[in-house]
Amino acid sequence: MRKDSRLSRMLHVLIHMQQFGEPVTSETLAAMLSTNPVVVRRTMRSLKEQGYVHSVKGHGGGWTLTVPLSSITLLDIYRALGESTMFTIGLTDEHSRCPIEKAVNNALGDVLAEAEKLVIERFENVALDALAEEFSNHHVEQCRQ
């Protein structure tokens, strides 16, 4: 099953954007993420709609942060990206009349809902500046190579 890595990728990008201190092109971000600039622009658009980034076209243009990382939480970015499915574990509905399937689905559903609630609460309490503080400029340079 394919993972949705947009959250971790955008957190990565936002922290780098702060480190650059100047507009960063979609091409530069795409190279960092080993993807296409179109994918970067499409994903960044949802962050722009929420007011976290701004873009300027043309020479000297690119993406910039509009708010400090201390004002952005993991939950903010998770929501801006559309709150993808937290877990890839799914419930079955092939035998919906079977009492065992119902019991299994109820148990799994309850556990997954509780786990998702906990993750959301934790996301709300982690600002991006806390992640950025874990890295020195030396470590950031290693990422750019």
UniProtKB/TrEMBL annotation:
Any one GO MF annotation of this record: DNA-binding transcription factor activity
PANTHER family recorded: HTH-TYPE TRANSCRIPTIONAL REGULATOR YWGB-RELATED, WINGED HELIX-TURN-HELIX TRANSCRIPTIONAL REGULATOR, RRF2 FAMILY
Family annotation (Pfam families): Rrf2
InterPro entries: Tscrpt_reg_Rrf2 (IPR000944), WH-like_DNA-bd_sf (IPR036388), WH_DNA-bd_sf (IPR036390)
Annotated GO CC locations: cytosol
Domain of life, source organism: Bacteria
Name of the protein in its database record: Rrf2 family transcriptional regulator
